Amino acid sequence: MSRIGRKPIAVPAGVDVKIDGSTVTVKGPKGTLTQTFRPEIGIKFENSEILVTRPNDEKMEKSLHGLTRTLIANMVHGVTEEFKKELEINGVGYRAAKQGKQLVMTLGFSHQVFMEDTADVTIDVPAPNKIIVHGPDKQKVGQFAAEIREKRPPEPYKGKGIKYVDEVIIRKEGKAGKGKK
Q: Which residue range or ranges hold the Large ribosomal subunit protein uL6 alpha-beta domain (predicted)?
């Protein structure tokens, strides 16, 4: 049986959970998240815990069991603490700034790159070379951070570009190091 799927999800005080068939709505201090799951998976809310059950041990139900439990746990975590991704900009003249609800990045192009805050995701720029993306929905935060990184991914020779703070860029030797052994 799924070890992850069997584990109950503790719902902290201040978080409101509403289950309507296979649709789960979680409301907390950081926002409201709603998601519809497959109808085969049973979801119950009792004694300030959410329990996820499956009808049988078929392969599809087994895989959906743990997935559903993890997605609901992420929803509960997101509306209480929010998820965040930190990005770092490396390179001479590369920088970011916040103008109202827009992120303005200078990334070595002939033009500046603009990205707009969305309703679900907020951007902070504590330093010119650091960007913090945060919000209650884990998937949307990760996707938005990936879209920012995509504007100028780090290159392997000098490491210039936008990278995640915990990402390690594997460096390559240039042309000058080819003949040395």
A: 11-81, 91-164
Are 87 and 160 contained in the same domain?
yes
The one-character DSSP state at 155 is: P
CA distance 60 to 43: 17
**Domain range for 25:** 9-81
CB 39 within 8 A of CB 65: no
Output the pLDDT for position 5: 87
Average pLDDT of the chain, as a whole number:
92
How many structural domains compose the chain? 2
Please state, in angstroms and rounded to a whole number, the distance separating the CA atoms of residues 171 and 61: 43
Which residues are CB-neighbours of 17 under 8 A, at least 6 positions away?
11, 24, 25, 26, 27, 45, 50, 76
Cβ-based burial of 45 (10 A; exposed 0-12, middle 13-18, buried ≥19): middle
CATH number of the domain within which 64 lies? 3.90.930.12
**pTM of the predicted structure, to 2 decimals:** 0.89
